[in-house]
Design a protein that fits this description.
Blueprint (H helix, E strand, L loop, with lengths): L3 E6 L3 E7 L6 E8 L3 H14 L4 E6 L9 H16 L4 E5 L3 H11 L4 H4 L3 H18 L1
Parallel strand pairs: 1-4, 4-5
Antiparallel strand pairs: 1-2, 2-3
Helix pairs in contact: 1-2, 3-5
Length: 138
């Protein structure tokens, strides 16, 4: 049975989400606070294995028009390292607007700015995974 884990990879934090047992929707899981490149890669591999992931979905940030940005290159380097550190297949998913949508949800729920940073990345990862699950279900 397939199980998906998604990562929203940022410079300071990485959001984590996991699919439900039937792979119909994504659940925000946790926010990992970055420590260092190699340690971060090892931590994500460990998280994916602990969650029973059979596929890792990584958000790839691109510009509004679909072109690469500086952050695209940084994230792509991280994803390439992740691919070499695990035998779990790693795929990329467009993450445009996922963080913005996550912020909007948390604001609409009345969450204060100070608390949002602890949840926004996991919620963005869930948005990334929801997009991927919708795409593969077609």
């Amino acid at each position: 049975m397939e199980r998906y884990v998604a990562f929203d990879i940022g410079d300071k934090r990485i959001g984590v989400a996991i699919s439900d047992p039937f792979n119909t929707y994504a659940l925000p899981s946790q926010t990992y606070f970055r420590k260092g490149f190699e340690e971060d890669v090892a931590a994500l591999v460990k998280i994916a294995k602990e969650k029973g992931a059979t596929v890792i979905v990584c958000g790839l940030p691109v510009n509004f028009d679909g072109t690469n940005a500086v952050q695209t290159e940084k994230t792509a380097r991280f994803i390439e390292k992740l691919k070499t550190a695990t035998d779990i297949p790693v795929v990329c998913e467009d993450e445009r607007f996922t963080t913005k949508m996550a912020h909007e949800v948390l604001i609409s729920e009345g969450m204060r700015r100070e608390k949002r940073k602890n949840y926004v990345d996991a919620l963005a990862a869930a948005n990334i995974l929801d997009g991927y699950l919708a795409k593969i279900s077609k």
